[in-house]
Fold:
Amino acid sequence: MDLLFVCLGNICRSPAAEGVALVLSRGDSRIGRIDSAGMGPWHAGNPPHVTMCEVARAAGYPIDDLRARQVDRSDFFEFDWILAMDRQNQRDLLALQATFGGKAKIRLLLDGAPDGIYEVPDPYGGAISDFQDSFSLIRSGVRAFLAHP
Ligand code: 4NP
Structure:
């Protein structure tokens, strides 16, 4: 399966999810391509937010080398799963798929997660603790997804 993680800017939440998935899926023959993208174009080409880089690196998931990009029509055809960080992302992705078509299954990353929280809060502009809280949710969400896709 090919996995695409999506948030709004592709510099905080979805690159963190990509970084966690890259590590946790090592040696997992079910997993093909792993990528992330943002709904908006603003940060295309940029590395992830410096605070998310620090939080992810401290947890053992380096994401400094990732670069942001915007969601593209081809994503809906190339990826099996598109995992949205919040309900607004999910709605926007479903609206694009209604126009573009494509086989990708779109769901919230945290849909199968154990915490009873279904959206990853956007930490952009927040304190380091906001980044840490979002990162923890992302890590358990990716774990839960890989256990039960
Ligand atoms: P992300 O956070 O969606 O988790 O990457 C954001 C980053 C940037 C913006 C919004 C959210 N922005 O509006 O620039």
